[in-house]
Structure formats: C-alpha cells, structure tokens
Design a protein that fits this description.
The complex is a heterodimer of chains A (about 1050) and B (about 300). In chain A, helix 5 runs parallel beside helix 7 and helix 15 packs across helix 16. In chain A, the strands form 5 sheets. Chain A has an 8-stranded mixed sheet with strand order 8-9-15-14-13-16-17-18, with helices on both faces. In chain A, strands 2-4-3 form a 3-stranded mixed sheet. A 3-stranded antiparallel sheet of chain A has the order 10-12-11. Chain A has 43 helices and 18 strands. Chain A folds into 9 domains: about 110 residues, no CATH class; about 120 residues, no CATH class; about 80 residues; about 200 residues, no CATH class; about 60 residues, no CATH class; about 45 residues, no CATH class; about 210 residues, 3-Layer(aba) Sandwich (Rossmann fold), CATH 3.40.50; about 35 residues, no CATH class; and more. Chain B has 2 domains: about 200 residues, Rossmann fold (3-Layer(aba) Sandwich), CATH 3.40.50; about 90 residues. Chain B is built from 12 helices and 9 strands. In chain B, helix 11 packs antiparallel against helix 12. Chain B is elongated. Chain B starts with a helix and ends with a helix. The chains are: A alpha/beta (about 1050), B alpha/beta (about 300).
Chain lengths: ~1050, ~300
C-alpha cells in the first residue's frame, strides 16, 4: 500500500516539476526513517499542498522537501507540521516568501524554540506589502535570519523589523541597505545596548529618516567611543532629543560621540550629567558644550570644567544666545572664565609635590590636606580658606585662583607650605617652659613658680596670663614674625616671593587709626611682622610705648631667637598692652620715626611687680577684638597642636602607668584655650565641649596600632568563644602592616593573617576537569613542553666549556698571527640558562566568586554552533537543565578549572609553585588557605584540597599579598612571580566597603604589590571583573594586569599568560 | 721588546705600585680613622658600609696614604720592586656581576707559542702587601668567596687553583670590602659566613657643617654656596624612602658645587647635578626642584 501511494505521490509531484520529485526522493529515506507511515503521508501531503497554491508555488515546495531532513532533526513531527503550515500560509501570499522561509529554516531553527517559530514567521511577514520590493526585502530578512538571530532576541528582531518597516515608507533602498548592514552592525553592539539602540533607530526612522541609515551604519563606531557604562544613557538621551526635536539628534550623535571620544572615559558620566542639565534649557547650548568638552577637559581638567559650566549656566539663564556663545567658547566671558580656571591651581594636582617639599624641609612625615578635612574633624579649626597645621599635617585651601598665572598661584601655595613647615622646622610647637630663652632674661621661671599642674608647656605658659586671648594674639604675631624672619634668612631662593606676598598682605591690613588703641598696638605688631617698619603714624601720647613694642618685636627677628624668646617677648608686651585702655584715640596721630631704636631693653622700666600678669587688663574701653589673621599664615594654634601631639604620644605608649590626662583636665584646658573660637563653641555649653573632646580623642585614636598584647587578647577571646574547641593546631598567624594612604604611612601590625591548610575533599573535581577539558589540557601541556628546549641555550665565548667555539678559535688564531693577545674565551657550553622560576598563585575566595556565570556564558560566542549544531543543542539543553536545577557554574569553578589545567603544565616544566586561597572578615581574620604550599610536592592531597575551594567571605587583598610575598621571599629562584586571580575589587569591613574606603583598599593593595615588586617579585593581577579596568589601572599602574572579559576563556588564558610571563 | 711587551710590564707595575702619593682630602666624621688603623695593625679585614657617594673609597685612599706614611713599615721585596719612597700600594677592584674568581686571581695568557701566567689584581695585592679594596663586593660572582674566606681568617692565604699554589699574604696585606645595604636585593645580601670575617665601619651622611667643609674643599665655591648646598643635601635626604630610594650623595653635591664654580647658575647646576641625577619620577623631580628654588635664588 505504501509503495502504491508512494508512486501515486511521486506521480502527483512530477506534475509540478521533475525537480520537486528529485528533492522528494532525496528527502524520502530520512523522512521514512524518522516518521511513521502515517506521518510520512502527511509530510508528503503538506508538500503537495504547498505546491498547489500558485503557479510558482512549486519552488517553495521544492525548498520544503530540500530542508526536511535537517528540520526533522530538530523538531518533533507535531512541531514540524506547524512549521510547514506556517510556510504554506506564506506561500499563499507569495511563493518567494515561502521559499526564503524554508530555505532559512535549518539555520534559524537552532536559535529558536519550537514555540517561537510562529513569531519569527509573523515578524518577517510584516515587511511584506504585496509589492515586489517589499517581497524581496522580506525574503532578505528571512535569509539573513540565521545570522541576525545569533545576536538578537526575537523581541529585538521585531523592533528591528519595525524600524525597517518605517524606513520602507520613505525608501526601500535604505531599508535594504540597513538589512544588509545589520549583520555587521549588531555584533558590534553590546547586548544590553541593543534595545535602546533599536528604540532610537525607530524614532529616527520616523523623524529623521535620512540620518537613520547613517546612524544605523555607524552605531558600533559611535558607541565604541563612549564609556561602556554610559552607552545606554547616551542612547536614551539621543532618543529624548530625537523625540522632542529631531533636528538636533544627528549633531548630538555624531559630534557628541566624537567629542566624548576625545575625553578620558572616566569623565563621560560626569559630562553627560552636565549635558543633561543644560539640555533642558537649551539643546543647542548643550550640544555646543559637549563639543567643547575635549578642549575644556584638556585645559582645565574635569573639576575646572564643572566650574566653567556653572558659570555658563548662569549666563544661559540670563540670555539664551549669550549662553550658546559661551558654550561654543565664542564669548569673551567664557574665555575669561576659562583663563581664570586654567591659571587656577588645585591642591589635588600639587598635593604630592607639596608633600614631598614639606617633608624635605621639615624631615617630618607631613600630610598635605585640604582645609575641608580639618574643618570636618571638628577639633577646633573652622576656617576653610586659611592654611594651618595641627602637628602632623599641613592644611591648605582646596584651590587657589588669586593670580592670573598658574606659576604665581603655585607660589602662593608654596609660601603657605613654607610658612607652616617653618613652624615645624623652627620649633614653634616645641616650646618648653623650662628651656632658657636666648635673647631675653627668663621672667617665666619666676612667674611660673606657683603654677598649677598643666598638660602642656604652652598651657602652662598661657596660664600666666589673665587674658589668654590677648596673650595668644601677641604670641602669634611675635612667633609668626620670628618664623618668617628665620625662613627668609634660611631660604634665599624663596625670599623674594615671600616678601612679595608679605607686602601684599600688608597692603590688605586695616588702617590703624580706625582701631581702638590696644587693638591698634596689636595690629602694629602684626604689620611689624610683615615688614620692617621705619615709621608709623600713631598717637603721640603713646610714642614711648610704641617704641618699646617695636623694639621688643624687632628683637625676635634674629637668627638666634627661639620660640622661648617669643614667649618672653610676649610676657613683656602683654604686661605693657594690658595696661593700655582699649578706646578710640581720635587725636594726636603723627608720624613716629622708628628707624632709631635703642638697644637698651630696660629703657622703659617695666618691673614685674608693677604689672602682675595674673590680673585682668585694666582700663575701660571697647571689648577687645583679635587682629585679622594674615591670610598666607592662616591659623596658628600652638596650644592645641601641643596638646594633640602630646595626646598622640601618650596614646602610642599607653602603658605609662599614671597618665596625668584626666578628661576633666583636658576639658578644662579646652575651655580656657583662646584658640577655640567662641562662635564655634559657647563656653558654658558643656555638651559641645564634650563633643569637641571626643573629636579630639578620636583624632588621636585614628590609627591605633594593633599592639602585640592586644592581639593576644584577641586570641584568648576567640578561644573563650569557641569554648572547648581549641584553635586549630596547624593554624599559624602572622601580623602585617597596612598602608594608610591618607596618612602616607603604615598602620603597624594592623592585620592578622591566619594560615591554614584547606580541608580535603575528593579528587573528583580534579579528575573530572581533566577529563572534560582533555583536549585543552593536552594542548597546554604540549605548549609547555615546547618551552623546555628553549632553555638549553648555547652560551658562547666562555673560558671553559664543552667544546671549542669554532668562530672564537679562528678569531683568536687570527689575532695571534697578527701579534695581538688573543682572547682566551673560546669555548661554548650548553644548559647554562636554567629555568629557575618560583610562582605563587593567589586565589580570591571571596563570596562574590559564587556568582553564577550563565549570563556571560550565553553571550559568549566562543562555540561555533554553526559548525557543530548538535553539540550546541546538547549544551543548550544542559544549560537549561542547569538553570532549572539552579546548579549553574560559578566564577570560582572556572578559577579552579584553570588551576587544575595549569598544575598539569607546571608539573611538566618543573617550576616551583604554590597555590593559596584567601578570604576572611575584618583585619584580625584574614584567612590564608594553603592549597599547595610552595615547598610541598604535588600529591593527591592537593587534588583533594582543590575540591574544597569555595567562596567564603570578604576580600582583603593587601595582607594576603604580603603573606604570599613573604612566602616567595624565602625562595631563591631567579624569577619570582606572584599571580593574583580575583573577581573584583578588594573589600572588607573597614577596607573598601563604602565609597570612602574604596581608595583606601585600592591604595593598600597597590602598596602591597609594590612591596612585592621591591623584593624583586613580579606581581601580576588577573581579574574577571568587567569593571576591573578602572581600578586595576589605578592599582597596578606599572604592574602587569589583565582583565579577562570572557570568563570561559580563563582556563585557556591563564596558562598562556603564565607562559608569556616566564618565557 | 715589542710594544705589546712594554705595555704588559708597564701595566703589571701599575697595579701594585699604585701608591697614593698626594694626601687625599678626607674629613673624619667620627673615630673611623683610629678604628681602621687599629684594624690594620691587627690585620683584621674591614667592611665599609654606607650609601653611595658618602666617601668610602676616599676613606680607603686616605687610609692607604696615612698608613703608608711612616716608612718604618718593612716592605717585602717583590719582583717588580717598590719605588724608593715606599708607601702602601692600593689595589681597587670595582666588582660587577661577571667578576669571577679568575679575574681576581689571574689566568694563563697565550704568549708566542707558549702560555704565560698573569697574576690578577688580588694576587698582586697579596704578594706585594697592598690594601686590596673590593668595591661593591656583593655584585661579584659567588665563586669569589672561595678566595675571600681563606684570606680573611687566621690563615691569610690565597689559593691559586690553576697553578696548584697557595700564596701567603704579605704582612702588610689587608682586604677591605665595601657594600651598600640600601638598594641591594635580599638575594645579593652578604652571607654571614662572609660578613662575620670583617669588622664593619658604617658611614652615614656628614652633618651640615661637615658637609659644607667637604664641599668647600672639593670645589671652588664660596662658603655660602657650600653651606646652601649642604642645606639642600640635608633637605633632600629627608625624602629618602618618600619618593627617593637613596638620599643625595656628597659626591653629587660636590658636582653641583663644581658646576656653580664654573659659572653655571646654582638652580640649573642643582637641576642637572642633583634633581635629574637622583630620579626619573617627574613628581619627585618637581618636589626637589621646589626645594632647590626655595634655597637658591
């Protein structure tokens, strides 16, 4: 029966075309194999049905039969039938469509689930508009589907078709071209960018169809110029622009991306922020701004650009055209602002230079910090503009734009630093109450006899005075004067700039006659400190007093003067000035010549008994106001600095039994100190003093070293907690310093690394990996074996060796004949260059390595599923099962696999290697797991340990690197390599968890890597974190690193890298 | 005799007859002169430690001159003979990575149809009773220790393997080695079996006052310039390990002084002799230049 109907079928088919019959006969055997007789009938019937539709439908049927064997491999018969019916329906429309559909099916079906086939057919049909052009476009779509769907999901494909469809309304040629281009365009666009990309394309096709094609064709290039994270945003901005007013969109897309391409990628996000800000006001200005960006960032940096932008926004709000010109860099105003900003010096740019400069001058480890930091500390400094120091750091304003040139602005910084460094260098804060002054008789000793106990020497000194504020002001003026004098004497090179700035400061001082008398005296003192005054306009009635003040003040301008002399001068000046009433003196101002000062100190006989310092200043008058601070000198708070220094010192040697520092005493000191501004702190308000006190103590405690005894205590506590379970015997712990980049110093013994052997599991993982990757393993091994013979180099021209080096012998004979002493290096020897490599692999076992990687895996087009369709299908199935069973592969699995493969290779060439994992939580608990110790031989144990490598806690890289470094340091190989494999940035509690600490962690890691480098170890960082580029660049600035984009390639990449590093 | 022969003989005499005739300028910073004299009297080998350019070599020259001055020291007669004025010869060998034991002891050279043994510098020093100064000893190859060990303990002998000989050191022979602990790698550290055969004299940087004196003496600048340079030296040394691997050496300061003496403006002289010589790091360079411009007008 079958035969009969077969022949009748064939008969029927023959009627359409002999070619159909031939295809049918070709397909029949495989169809028969897969189908029941009943199904076979249906199959053939379907073909006939297709062929019957129209005059040329037989062509579609022919394709139908031709692809049948391949399609049947993939679809069940039920699905097959619905597939065929879809084709038949297309055939109703046009046989060409149907042919294309069938023809493209084998390549396409592998990319779709059976239920999606209908969607695919429907999407394509949208393009068909019953004209021959639409038909050919539609056919083309089907034909390119196998390629398109590799990159697009069906949903995206549908959008794409809509885009084409909109284009067809304007131009079929454009649409066809776009479809042709699509195969090249889509691979160049990241998966997550495709949707916004297509959305924009759709909008453009409606509003701006001529540009749409250009946009479509150049999209990959456009996008590649923009920072990866920002591309989506760029596209959505473009879409917004295109929707609102299409005419700007092309400019934004092309000019904008080009401009951004010329700016460092790190700034893209910020620049787009700014762009969006202006966009609302004026699209023209916004685009002009974007176009100006490269120039701006180049000239004034990103922060400068922000300032320039703010100014521009203001201009724009006033008048739109002016704003547009501003952003186009075509207005005088914008040039002016740019000029000012480009001459501006930012602390951030010169911080390192100033730090080293100040370190060179003082020999102390000074930090250069922005005054913002000091103010935030809340320990008594409030001014933002003025420089200061608190004993360990010099605080400077965040930027300077006083002058028109960068050079002058920098000089201003330099003079400020020099002045602050001068305080440190010439001992302003080293004041000792009991040290003798050099130029004055020591009145202090007598006065201070009955002084009460005090914390610091300066406190004791200021305790002498009833009016601490007046005393402090006098002391400041005198001491600044002394320091400036010493600086100018010591440093001839800076003298001129220094004096220039002093003169400028002098010009800004308030006029004396506007001040009440006592304040006028103080002001006079300050002006004296800025310049040697030869004459002064002052009330004649106090001429004698003025002379006295001038004389005392000029006395400390001497190379011999010490801080104690300043103190003695303060006593004398105070005793005089406290007697002067602070009232406005309206008459009698005349010029007093000060060029002739008597050297006799006792000219004005001031006896100690006459003016007891302990009493409040006499005389009525206005309340006393401190003189204005000299801007380049800034805040001088010696008492606080001494206190902080002392507290720090005490803190670092805490064991001292009877510390005189009770909180009460501290509180008292702070309350009476004139250096804390009343505005900041009302005196009676104890709670704010308390807060202040805790800030100060916090400042001191900021870097408490982990003392050995503390560490021990930590241990015992741990033991208590664990109860009966004693600590693992095998565990060894090590203490390491940590780098604090803010302090530019190490925190000593800050981290505890606990080393332990990893638990052992089964060897299955190891064996299975080798089995699964047998081809790769063999390949790697072969490559490494090839490496070995390279090492047997012939070394020529030796004194001694295996045999004569013929060239050298001949040369030497020639020389001998010629009468020259011949070289005796005429031997060669082999095997001189030994491979002598030790390597440590440091594996990140942080929790984040548990991340599943299917996302990455899906997009990876490493496997060629064109060539190996069946393999692909089986993998796809496996992948789906994995998803279902939630047993997807983790990053750490790939890391492990790579190691397994590498071990094989390393065993081949005989390099010494150790494998360690690290994780942990907190600085006291950096876990360091030994997977294979560097001295240990490879064994079953190692295989078992690899099985147990699992994601654990956090990532504190620094200490782990340091520990690995010390392991490598013990090796005496010629080449030592530290290989760090991680999945992301370092983080741990107090170590890069929040954005504030991110830098800290990165800097510490960087320092740890540099330490390794200094020990002649070659560090190399490998990360699978896609965002790795930005911080790795910072972390490894001249250390090798690599970001592996596709984690699946890690097993292949790691051995290759290793080979390259050691070859 | 052929020209070649003359040259060879001339050279041979050079090495062991190099006696420091002029008194080298050396400013003692501490009691190192007395210590060295005592060590020499007792034939204890000396190890000189210290940063580069701090005067180690100059010290050895000075000591060779100083110790050679009293003619009472009896000179053994060697083949070449000593000049009538006596003095202790100084043999200085700068060690490098490829310096092998052979280079120090000597080797056979071809001469005509036969071979001829040529003593190496160490052998000559041993024979003639010179002070042999091995500069930067850790740089030399490991096989040199074979020679140093027997020479530096009670045996005081030099084995000459190729000739199958052992040479007893002459009475005046003293081995002095130097090394700079600063920048050597851990691998290149001196082994304890070696270093514990020497007494060690540590050299630091001179104080500002001393350095001024040295600079002034070694160049032709005014005391003021010398003082400023010494000040600069002190300031720059504050940057050691804060950007600089090594502080600026007295030698470099003297170079700067010499350039200034030749009429180069001080800032420029410091730039070429100090800033650029010290580091390639642009930021560190800038910092040092700021210090220079603060000190010099």
């Amino acid at each position: 029966m079958e035969n009969k109907s077969l022949s009748s079928l064939e008969e029927e088919l023959k009627r359409f075309s002999p070619a159909i019959l031939a295809e049918f006969q070709k397909a029949a055997p495989s169809a028969r194999e897969r189908l029941s007789p009943q199904e076979f009938q249906e199959w053939a019937g379907e073909g006939i049905a297709i062929a019957q539709f129209s005059f040329r439908a037989w062509e579609a049927a022919l394709e139908y039969f031709r692809v049948t064997p391949k399609v049947l491999e993939r679809l069940s018969f039920a699905d097959f039938l619905s597939w065929a019916q879809l084709g038949r329906r297309l055939s109703q429309e046009s046989s060409a469509l149907s042919s294309a559909y069938f023809r493209a099916s084998p390549g396409t079906l592998g990319l779709l689930s059976p239920s999606q086939i209908g969607d695919w057919a429907r999407i394509g049909k949208v393009l068909y508009q019953e004209t021959w052009r639409s038909s050919s476009l539609c056919c083309k779509f089907y034909e390119s589907s196998p390629k398109l769907l590799r990159y697009l999901s069906l949903e995206e494909a549908e959008r794409f078709v809509h885009f084409l469809h909109s284009l067809t309304e304007k131009s079929y040629d454009f649409a066809t071209e776009c479809l042709t281009l699509a195969e090249e365009v889509f691979p160049g666009i990241e998966r997550e960018e495709r949707k916004p990309f297509l959305n924009l394309a759709l909008v453009l096709a409606d509003t701006n169809w001529r540009d749409a094609k250009a946009y479509f064709a150049s999209a990959p290039k456009l996008l590649s110029r923009i920072e990866r994270q920002e591309r989506k945003r760029f596209l959505s901005i473009a879409k917004a622009i295109a929707t609102s007013d299409g005419s700007y969109a092309p400019s934004f897309l092309f000019d904008g991306s080009q401009a951004l391409g010329r700016v460092d990628e790190a700034h893209h996000s910020r620049l787009l922020d700014l762009f969006e800000e202006v966009l609302l006001v004026s699209p023209v200005a916004a685009i002009e701004f974007l176009k100006s960006c490269p120039t701006l960032v180049d000239r004034i940096g990103i922060s400068g650009t922000e300032c320039w932008f703010e100014e521009g926004k203001r201009v724009l709000q006033r008048r739109e055209e002016a704003g547009e010109a501003y952003f186009r860099l075509e207005s005088a105003k914008s040039e002016e602002v740019l000029e000012r900003l480009s001459s501006r010096v930012e602390l951030e740019q010169v911080r390192e230079v100033l730090r080293m400069y100040s370190r060179a001058l003082t020999g102390r480890n000074a930090q250069i910090l922005s005054t913002e930091n000091l103010k935030d500390k809340g320990i008594g400094w409030t001014s933002l503009e003025k420089p200061s120091t608190e004993g360990t750091g010099v605080y400077l304003p965040p930027f300077i734009e006083r002058y028109d040139s960068k050079g002058q602005n920098f000089t201003w910084y330099k003079v400020m630093v020099t002045h602050q460094a001068g305080h440190l260098e010439f001992g302003s804060f080293d004041f000792s109450f009991d040290r003798e002054a050099k130029l004055f008789p020591n009145w202090r000793f007598e006065l201070g006899e009955q002084a009460r106990s005090s914390i610091t020497d300066l406190e004791r000194f200021f305790d002498l005075f009833a009016d601490r504020r007046l005393a402090a002001d006098i002391f400041t003026a005198v001491e600044d004067s002394r320091v400036d004098y010493r600086l100018k004497g010591e440093y001839a090179g800076i003298r001129r700039a220094y004096e220039q700035i002093q003169r400028e400061a002098l010009a800004r001082r308030p006029p004396l006659h506007s001040l009440p008398l006592r304040e006028a005296f103080l002001e006079f003192l300050v002006q004296m400190s800025l310049q040697d005054l030869r004459e002064m306009v002052f009330p004649a009635e106090v001429e004698g007093e003025l002379r006295f003040v001038a004389q005392i003040a000029s006395r400390v301008k001497s190379p011999q003067a010490t801080v104690e002399d300043s103190a003695e001068a303060t006593i004398r000046l105070y005793s005089l000035l406290s007697t002067i009433a602070n009232k406005i003196c309206a008459q009698g101002w005349q010029t007093i010549d000060l060029s002739q000062l008597s050297q006799d100190l006792d000219e004005l006989r001031l006896s100690l008994d006459g003016t007891p310092l302990g009493e409040a200043p006499k005389g009525e008058g206005l309340p006393y106001q401190s003189p204005e601070v000299v801007d380049f000198r800034g805040d001088f708070k010696p008492e606080l600095v001494q206190l902080l220094t002392k507290l720090r010192r005490d803190y670092s040697q805490r064991d001292t039994p009877d510390s005189p520092l009770s909180p009460e005493a501290l509180m008292e000191l702070l309350e009476k100190s004139a250096e804390i501004e009343i505005t900041n702190l009302s005196l009676g308000d104890l709670s704010s003093v308390g807060l202040f006190l805790s800030n100060i103590l916090g400042e001191v405690e900021q870097s408490p070293p982990l003392q050995p005894d503390q560490a021990k205590r930590g241990d015992s506590r741990k033991k208590m907690k664990l109860g009966e379970k004693p600590l693992d015997e095998e565990e060894r712990s090590f203490l390491y310093d940590e780098w604090n980049f803010r302090a530019n110093d190490y925190k000593p013994k800050w981290c505890r690394v606990r080393e332990k052997a990893l638990a052992e599991g089964s060897t299955d993982f190891f064996e299975n990996t080798l089995k699964d990757h047998s081809r790769l393993a063999a390949q790697i091994k072969r490559q490494f074996e090839m490496l070995t013979p390279e090492l047997f180099k012939k070394i020529k021209r030796l004194h001694d060796g295996e045999d004569f080096d013929l060239d050298a012998v001949i040369e030497s004979m020639v020389e001998k004949k010629a009468g020259i002493t011949p070289s005796e290096k005429i031997y060669w020897r082999r095997n001189k260059v030994e491979r002598d490599v030790s390597v440590v692999f440091l594996l990140d076992m942080s929790a984040s390595t548990s991340e599943a990687i299917e996302e990455v895996r899906r997009t990876s087009d490493d496997w060629d599923f064109y060539g190996d369709l069946r393999g692909y299908m089986s993998r796809l199935r496996a992948y789906r099962e994995e998803i279902a069973g939630k047993k997807s592969k983790q990053i750490i699995d790939v890391e492990k696999e790579s190691l397994v493969l590498l071990i094989g290779a390393l065993e081949t060439i005989g390099d010494k290697y150790g494998i360690y994992g690290f994780s942990g939580y907190g600085r006291d608990n950096v876990e360091f797991f030994v997977i294979k110790d560097i001295e240990e031989d490879f064994s079953e144990k190692v295989k078992r340990r690899i099985d147990k490598v699992t994601p654990m806690h956090a990532t504190r890289m620094g200490p782990a690197i340091r520990h690995a470094t010390s392991k490598l340091g013990g090796q005496d190989s010629k080449t030592k390599i530290l290989f760090l494999i991680s999945d992301g940035r370092p983080q741990d509690q107090g170590y890069g968890r929040d954005s504030m600490e991110k830098d800290y962690a990165i800097h510490d890691t960087k320092m740890a890597l540099l330490e390794a480098k200094r020990k002649h170890i070659i560090p190399f960082c490998l990360t699978v974190d896609k965002a790795g580029q930005d911080y790795l660049k910072k972390m490894c600035h001249d250390i090798g690193y690599e970001v592996v984009w596709n984690i699946q390639s890690l097993p292949k990449r790691l051995p290759a890298l290793y080979r390259r590093l050691t070859a | 005799m052929s020209a070649q022969g003359v040259r060879t003989i001339y050279k041979e005499h050079m090495i062991e007859e190099y006696v420091v005739r002029e008194e080298p300028y050396y400013l003692p910073l501490s009691d190192e002169v007395e210590v060295f004299e005592a060590a020499y009297a007792q034939k204890i080998p000396v190890l000189l430690k210290g940063p580069t350019g701090c005067g180690k070599t100059r010290f050895v020259e000075y000591m060779a001159y100083r110790l050679g001055r009293p003619l009472s020291i009896v000179k053994p007669r060697t083949k070449g003979g000593l000049t009538e004025r006596g003095g202790i010869p100084l043999v200085t060998v700068a060690c490098h990575e490829d310096l092998s034991a052979t280079d120090l002891v000597g080797r056979y050279l071809l001469e005509g149809e036969s071979t001829k043994w040529i003593d190496g510098p160490l052998t000559r020093a041993v024979k003639s009773g010179a002070i042999c100064y091995l500069d930067e000893i850790v740089e030399a190859r490991k096989d040199t220790t074979v020679l140093i060990h027997p020479l530096t303990d009670h045996r005081r002998i030099l084995p000459v393997e190729k000739k199958g000989q052992v040479i007893e050191a002459s009475g005046n022979f003293l081995l002095v080695i130097s090394y700079n602990p600063g920048y050597q790698s851990a691998l290149k550290d001196l082994k304890h079996s070696t270093r514990q055969r020497f007494i060690a004299i540590e050299f630091g940087y001179p104080t500002r006052e001393e350095e001024r004196e040295i600079i002034e003496h070694e160049s032709v600048v005014s005391p003021e310039i010398a003082w400023e340079l010494a000040k600069l030296g002190e300031k720059v040394r504050n940057l050691k390990e804060h950007g600089l691997e090594e502080g600026v050496s007295t030698r470099l300061l003297i170079y700067a002084a010499k350039l200034i003496g030749e009429g180069i403006p001080p800032r420029r002289a410091c730039q070429v002799a100090i800033v650029w010589a010290l580091t390639d790091d642009a930021e560190v360079q800038r910092s040092i230049e700021e210090v220079v411009s603060t000190i010099f007008e």
